[in-house]
Amino acid sequence: MARNRQNLNIIYISDRMRETLRPIASCALTAVVAPMGYGKTTAVRWFLAEQAKAGAVVLQASIYSDNRSIFWKSVQKAFAVAGLTVLEGYDCPADASDAALLLEDLCAALGGKTPYYLFLDDFHLLGDERVAQFLCRLAYRLPENVHLIVASRNRFLPGEQVVRLGRRLHRIEADGLRLNREELLAYTHRCGVEITAAQAESLLRSCEGWFSAVYLNLHALAERGSLLQLGSDIYAMFTAAMLESLPEKTRGFLAVMGLADEFTVEMARAVTALPDAEEVLRALTQQNAFVTRLPDGVSFRFHHMMKECAERLFAQLPAARQTEVWQRYGRWYAQKAQYLHALQAFEHCGDRDAALAVIEADAGDLLASLSPAELLQRLDRCPVEALQRHPLAILVLMRRMFTWQQIPKMMELKALLEAAVAQHPEWPAAERGNLLGECDLIQSFLFYNDITQMSRLHRSASRQMSRPAVTLRNSGSWTFGSPSVLMMYYRAPGELGKELAEMYECMPHYYKITNGHGQGAELLMDAEAAYLQGAWEKAAVLLERARADAAGQENMTLCCDFLALRLALCGKGKEGYDFAAKRAALLQKHDGVQVHLLESIAAYFYALQGRPEQAPELFREHKLAEVSFFGPCRPMMSLIEQQVWLAQGEYVKVIAHSEGLLRRCEAMHYGLVGLQARIQLAAAQLRFGQRAEARATLAAALLDAVQDDFWVLFVEQYPALAPLLEGEDWAVCEPRLGPFVARILPAGRAFAVRLGLPAPAPELPLTDRDRELARLVAGRCTNKEIAAALYLSEGTVKQYINQLYAKLDMGGDPRTRRARLAEWYQKNAPRN
């Protein structure tokens, strides 16, 4: 007989379990893996409560589905409850590079003396290998005071990660959680339930130390005086022990609230329509270990075993009652801006109008977390009449279809919108104009970088709209992460004048309907063109005007910085730019797109100076495949990567990758990116010894560039192209090229001298001293040893060696050039 039924909910942690939990405090990652009901959550939470008493900060997040967006919000909530703001504004990492930025910020924010514990429960429900990989990367990087605990029914760590983590990993599995005979007896005694030796043996035999099964049997013993029948599955055991004796109101409460992941008293009152929902919940919490209050102090959750049984109860309710409950859930979630939960609730009850209203309220932000297939299936189930009652939702869905490149579906939605407007002449004229105008705006994205077509649609949208667009946020990257407006919108040689005129005409209309998204773009494009034409003063003035217009838009400000740095390299602007400080400021905004944009600017800047070792790791180590760049900016990123390869002396890489880049530029009408890629290719071919091919490539680039007078492009590449530019009569190829190249040469020489990059001149004869230098370098002598051997200063030796590199047309970093010089000497050393 039970001496005190309330003691059935007592937390029992055996001495053996305490020892099993102890290593959590010294390991970066603890993986707790066992089937449902083995007490994983209870044991970890007991341990965390003990750590909290000692001053540790505890963060707990539960997982309820495979939706990464919902999981991420749960993690953000856990940090917020603990008073930590480091995750505010961060999206769930979409690629390895975003994950690296988050890791950097997390480790900086959490490092110190205060112990931090982050507990992720029910990880098996997420089922996303990318998250498991991220957790492993996090475990490698975590400071010693930070500990990650992950509970799952299934093993989630890849085998190679277990090996790599080594002592940083602590594993607790089912055998460590089972109750043995002594622990079972101690547990029953602590609960106040006396059992006989025969009952103890029966429990051990039937439950095999499974905590939940033992608990349910003790409940049945205290309630009915007998253990549960052998052979019952866990859900039948749960129903018999925990549900059958409950009052009807309580069972109804469980049936309804079992659908929620987490809930508050306020939510329970709204969804169940029970005025005394708080009293019902309090009684359940006191009597049932499967109902727990969460660390925030106001939220509750059901154990998954109880949720499963509650959902079975819900399935027995009349269909009308089920529909009513789902609608209550949907309305609650919608009021709290939990739009994904609201969509799921309205999908369950088939309330299409309510679901479309949620899509309108969300404006497409959270729809991105749904898979394209899932959203398309929902659209197919939605009646046309319901869609046409929600024209704003149609616009939101059109925008999402464009992002996913579901263009036929996008055009199908456009036709629906136009039909809806035509069928409702009674709608106010302003509303009709706003709908049709925003439809034009969304359709304009199909003509990306065709300014003529985009301008036509933007003007049409501007004429019709009396409010800004609801489907476009002006905080997004206007250039898709590209550092240059001109690279995006210069389509073909000879078209510059027309394109600039259209930009000046088009952009005011676009700004009007997007709250100034991309403000200053037309001025910046004009400034970039002036820079490439050597109109330095004009470029500087236009740049400052663009910067003033772009104030408050980080994307455009960074593009202004890109041009300012190029001007500075040519001696026409202010020098000195603190990349580290700028990066630190961008990290505080938690915007990976802007960070990668800054990294691309830095990579180009350092590569032009012949200092690739200072380029950001993303470009220096060529990890661009790890970043989910927007499609429109990928060719620009590839172009900058090739500039880094040139500076590193990786000429074969440039030659090999140029063909694919030029093909993409042609398909996307990226005339300027293609032109710069051909200039890079000519430089690589020349350095690789393919002079004839380099001359042909350079000639084609010059013929294109002369049409819009873009001669400064060749100044930036002069150190690599000097032998060709200086050694050929380009007027023979085309009369216009004579004066065109004549402007390049003096500016190029000055550019090379300013950066300390003497232009290579392979035609110059080698002296005896040059050959002696090559012999000593090939013999792996240091500059100090060479200076001693030749009776020179180290500074003079360095100057002579640089001149030798220039004569032999050898570029790249110091180590690469020394290796190439040694290889050259081995091939050209005098034979005895």
TrEMBL record:
Domain of life: Bacteria
Pfam families named in the record: GerE, WHD_MalT
GO MF term (any one): DNA binding
GO BP terms in the entry: regulation of DNA-templated transcription
Key words, A-Z: DNA-binding
Ranges for domain HTH luxR-type: 763-822
SUPFAM superfamilies: C-terminal effector domain of the bipartite response regulators, P-loop containing nucleoside triphosphate hydrolases
Entry-linked Gene3D superfamilies: Winged helix-like DNA-binding domain superfamily/Winged helix DNA-binding domain
Positions of transmembrane segments: none
Protein name in the entry: LuxR C-terminal-related transcriptional regulator
Species: Faecalibacterium taiwanense
Organism phylogeny: Bacteria, Bacillati, Bacillota, Clostridia, Eubacteriales
